[in-house]
Amino acid sequence: MSENELSSIIIGLAIEVHTELGPGLLESVYETCLYHELKEIGLKVERQVNLPVKYKNLFLESGLRLDLIVEDKVIIELKAVKELCDIHVAQTLTYLKLTNLKLGLLINFNEVRIKNGLQRVVNHLN
After folding, report:
1. Domain residue spans in the chain?
2. Other CB atoms closer than 10 Å to residue 104's CB: what's the count?
3. Which of 87, 85, 77, 71 is nearest to 120 (CA)?
4. Would you place residue 125 in the very low, low, confident or very high pLDDT band (cuts 50, 70, 90)?
């Protein structure tokens, strides 16, 4: 399955979670529910994945954690903030570069309409 196909599925499930719960909860609640939905349909999903940082020729434990990785292809960075900022996009792009993945979905659940809180972040996606 391609990154774009996965993206469509993930967005649909994020909309489902948001419709069920609405805005205003902690990020961890949305993460737990989206993780459940993705697993429920049979996708490979990893949660709170440690991300070491390559600095020069060293791999350093940095304390960075990726919210969700789907099928080893798409990073999902979840937020529950007033609004997405440029730094959130930059953070997601950095995660993509560190993992050498091509697509990240930045999802802010703290929106009345979740489509206003969805952003695709690409790292050389074909």
Report:
1. 3-122
2. 28
3. 77
4. low
Query: Do strands 74-79 and 45-55 pair parallel, antiparallel, or not at all (unpaired)?
Result: unpaired
Q: DSSP strand E in 39-126: where?
A: 45-55, 58-70, 74-79, 103-108, 118-122
The answer to whether the beta carbons of residues 77 and 107 sit under 8 Å apart is yes
Q: Which token pair is 113?
A: 């309409």
Q: Taking the model in full, what pTM does it have? A: 0.92
Question: What CATH fold (topology level) applies to the domain 3-122?
Answer: Lambda Exonuclease; Chain A (3.90.320)
d(CA 118, CA 103): 13
Tokens of 79: 């937020």
Sequence-distant (≥ 6) Cβ neighbours of residue 62 within 8 angstroms: 51, 52, 53
